[in-house]
Fold each of these.
Amino acid sequence: MLNTNRRSRLRLLAATVAATAALAGLTACGSDDDSGDAGAKPVLRVGVQKDGVRAVLDKAGLLDDLPYEIEWAEFTAGPPIVEAASADQIDVAWVGSAPPIFGAASDANFKIIAQVQERDQQENSILVPAGSDITEVADLAGKKIAVGKGTSAHGLLLQALKRNGLSLDDVEPNYLAPADGLAAFTSGEVDAWAVWDPFVTQVVEQNDAVAITGGAPDEQGVQFEIASTKSLEEPETRESIRHFVNLLKEAWVWAIDHSDEWGDGWAAESGLSPDVTRIVAKNKAADFGPVTDETIASEQALADAFFEAGELPKQIDFASIVEPGLID
């Protein structure tokens, strides 16, 4: 039998343990109510490439005091961005003219919410090395061409070949991401490279590459802001997306008169030379706005051309992936 003193000590220990547990429970409850999570800002997940988006927003002073926190995710090109939006891994992002077409053909869950019209009407170029015997698109017959599958450069290549009486079957496409395309092009593994800026300017300035075509009539220089369908269905996230897209519109107005500042920020962000990014920033003046009927028609024509070339599993209705009302 326990003696009286030992029983007293055990009672005191039990009471202390119980009090400590009760206090811990109260603290935990207080944490649920008062931890600060209730007042935390929502998070907006933004997909980017080496496109200078972060830099232009930062340099324009538009990233201060936002009603949400931005979580940036960097991708190599537009197609994986569309896939990420469809999988609800990002909320909003900027892509070129072709990735939405390929996304729609694979039933990806995203919408186009704004268009970006480059004033020079040129997204891409087809490049050849200095001294190449390829001087025009017709000379590409039988040649190896690096290009990102499903990218805007893929669209330019398709349309440029078609205009010159050729098809993708008449050339040897090497479907490569930009970094691999650059390596293949500069090492001579391919004869030409279809790609977008800043990579065009990079190899022109640093490797004396020559552009044999680009822009109209084979492309219109239209790019898009897309958003995850699931994100658009959540009211708070939808409002954050609306706010962000209109910030981009404001940033690009600022960039027109501050291209050098943007270019320097772009260089710091991407690791590219300021000599490259300053040129691109000056050339890439653009206007944000709602998707126009003219753009829908030109994108539908591009989608039909991809389908006819056997590059898509099915035809798409481009207008069906456009959601209006999120940009002023």
Amino acid sequence: MSATETFRIPKHRRHVPTARRQVHKALANWGVTDQLADSVTLLANELVTNAVTHCRISCAQIEVKLTLYEAHLVLEVSDPDRDRLPRLHDSAPDEEGGRGLALVAALAEAWGCRQGTYTKCVWALFALGGAEGARVPSTP
């Protein structure tokens, strides 16, 4: 059994907090709490911020998708700039940015990116081991 929550936001920094709140709400509705919810919300914030910052397509929509499986949670953030794939790199101590993917690599079980016909998607996988109370909601 699985559940999915998908939403879109305009490609603008002012909408990043909206994405963060929607992710947090979906996780709470599924019973995903504590450190796992904090980690997923933080990484959603990082990936959405990256998409908003680096997508070169004007008037784009950023899609956020959460999928809860019995033992895993998948976070996916997609944008229409399919040819600009993210790269993990070392940031200098005095750099203000560039650490988002390092956080993703540190907090997720696995992560990666894929190109679709018109989009790219950056995804992060989380084990639900720390969220025994997580439940899959019934279909409305």
Amino acid sequence: MKKIITEKVRRLRENLHLSQTYMAGLLEVELSGYLMFEEGYVDLNSDQIALLSKALGVKEQYLYVKEIEDTHVLARTDDEEITDNDKRQIAEFKNFQRNLGKKRNRELVLN
């Protein structure tokens, strides 16, 4: 069984300014359990992995592949001007993040 690259999860979570406490609550696990996950000691179930990927704004497969760079996840982070499409994606993701904790709907689908 493939393992999630937990360093990538930690980097994405920090880049999105999401706390470990928030993630533990979202995944319905104790904080200690989430900390053990980020350290690579425990695995998440398939529902938790699906929710984790949605919270981080990536497809599940991305969490398992070491070679993909984080800079390609949402909008560009270089000095180029952000396009209207990038702005729309960022706005949609922010709205999704705001509502994620409220809805707790595990059936959300990535676009």
Amino acid sequence: MFRFSLALPLTLMAGVSLADPLPSWNNTDSKTRIIDFVETVTDPASDSYVTPGDRIATFDNDGTLWGEQPLYFQLIFAIDVIGAMAQDDPSILTSDTLKAAANRDYKAVLDGGKESILEAMKVSHSGMSVDEFQARVAEWLATATHPDTGLRYDQMTYQPMVELLRYLRDEGFKTYIVSGGGIHFMRVFAEEAYGIPPEQVIGTYTATEYRTGDDGPQIVKAPAIGFVDDKEGKPINIDRIIGKRPVIAGGNSDGDFAMIEWSTAGEGPRLGLIVHHTDAAREYSYDRDSHIGQLVDGLDKGPGMGWLIVDMAQDWDRIYTGR
């Protein structure tokens, strides 16, 4: 893993101040390490120089670029959709999971485990074209608010991470989302929220079908899961779609461990980054025992592998873009 120890540079030359590329980051070691790393790999005179074509940075979304408590935002969307569907047609409520979802009983849906979550996702995410689905997501994002913060979900992106993405692109990096979230869901907001275009969003996807009819040719979402972009699936998808190991990889849970491990095992300078949720006052505090975003291996093994563990309470001056 790459380690660099120079102090944070304050000037480009005598009397000329640099603008702070990460203003929402406190002046801690985390900020210093990030800036030192980026400056080193983008300096043609450095032995650690990385050519622009190889400057790839991948980041998880849930819990890394925006919030994920009390449950994944996409699952909240699915539960809201089922509730709306049930108002129009109560006969769809054929299981305890769907009945719980219609009642917005988040705990009951989560208590049902993976099968319960998948059932809710299949019912709310299939049987329509991709265009119809994404229009529904856009409408939900424009109106739905978080049960704790009262913010719209797209206002709960993390300002420090939005700044980091912008900084990396300014320095010639190509930034990607690599998330367990649904690819069609994230593509609705990723460009506006993060500056990441749809073709650089990698995620879980349902099976799809090509159909033609009165509305012309359509890509239709089917109930079956096509690929789960989580854990070992993340490096597999990066290899398949990007074709290069990232120079920078960031996440917040053990679902991101394989991506960061594989990325930082490559030759040359690499930076692995874990966002550690330590701020119960401004956000949430959770790691080892959490039902969402569980973080064990990243804490136990990451530091020994040279990864940067970002302490939200200590390292971030601000949390959400919307507050």
